[in-house]
Amino acid sequence: MQSTLMLENDNIWQEKFNEESLDSEAWLTPNANLFDSITHSIEIANKKKKRKWIILFFIIGLMPLLLLLLPSNPNRSGAINSTDDLITELDSPSVDKEKQEFVNNSETSIIADLKNIEPVTINDNSKITNSTPPNSNNSNGVNDKVQKNENLIIGIDNNQENLEDTNESYSNNEHQISHELSLNKRTKSNPSSELRVLKQLLPIKRIDFLPLPVVQIPLINLPDNKTIGVAPTPFKRKKVQVGFTSEFWNFNLNNNYVTALNPADFNHGNGIGYSAFINFSQSITKKLYFNYGVALQQITFESGHNSSIAYDLSNEAENGMSNQFDLTMASPLGFLNSEVLIQRQSIANDAITDLAIDLNNEHSLTTIDLFVGLNYKVLNYRKLSLGLGIKGGINQLLRINNKLASVNTNHSNFLSESTIITKDQNSIKNLTPYFGSSMNLEFNIDDNNGIGITASLSNSLNPIYQEGDFSTNVIRHNIGMYWSTSF
Q: Which of 77, 138, 375, 430 can pair with 289 through a Cys bridge, CB separation 3.0 to 4.6 Å?
């Protein structure tokens, strides 16, 4: 009904403005400020519209947060499934006065914000007409300038409809809130009734709690028992070891040699010495290493036996009281020759005196050792590692030094004055191959450096001395320390 009436009024105005007699009328020309006023009004309406939505969204976001902050009954558990549950919760006697005041203040704030929103009313006409009613006498024609601005004004129609709907909605909401509050004032005011008003404005069907994100933890491959607690270190393929060892050589004479020397009461000691070495390691795998290196060794040992001589007064030199003897002496590495000078201390009663002498020799060897081997790391615990290996090589004799340390006689009237080694052993093998085993216990100071203990046991594959039926093999032990660098 209302739309039909508006359409009839619109037709009447169009007939009035289309009269030809109104073409020369100046009052039909719109003022330049008219369009500026229209544009300004639209901008203000848009700003107020945005402000309304911002306030509304703020209120909508604030209310669930306030509801969540309200303490619930401790005897109940679980999530709040709907607004009805929340109302039941507020109806309980545990709700105190502070909660009621909080809800009242929130409601009053909402109503005040809604009342502050000013509606913007724009006519529903597709054409904007002059507010001054036209003269009834001038009903023929319309101004050309108004026709030229129709396209500009038509573009505002959609905004007009949206603003009218918004104003109507807010007017209805404001009326509804005022009506509900008037009813609440007449009846007993309680949080439940006040919250029902909010429920109609802001319906909350369910408060869902977001699930916690699921964090996937990657699986960790634990090391074996031997490497538990070991921080991963970069794998180094090459290693250099430099160190010193103590050497122990056991000279093993064959039975024929021992039997021949028994009448002379032959004795000897084991070789004791030291060596300096450098060892290079090349990894084949993370646990298997190929070793090669060189060592310089210095070994000393002693030997001795008894011998019989006859001191002859006729062999004494003129104006002298001594005899010189050429003696052959035994050692673990063969026989050597020496000159011994025995001097008489007093007048001898006999022309020939049989003497028993005790000969003691000192021997020194300098050798160079070339070796290769394989080492396998059997244990790796924290920074400690244990490796076992096999090794073999060739021992090259560089030099031998013999010294007749002492000559003692069984007669106090005859003493030794001087001794000279005239000939060294001549049946020693210069090259002696050997084979054995080794052990390394190493502590890693950092990723590249470490200190360790090394030990080895080896046996010569060929005799170091062989002459006829006599021969001597060597069993060697060593133990020492070294510094290692990996790269």
A: 375
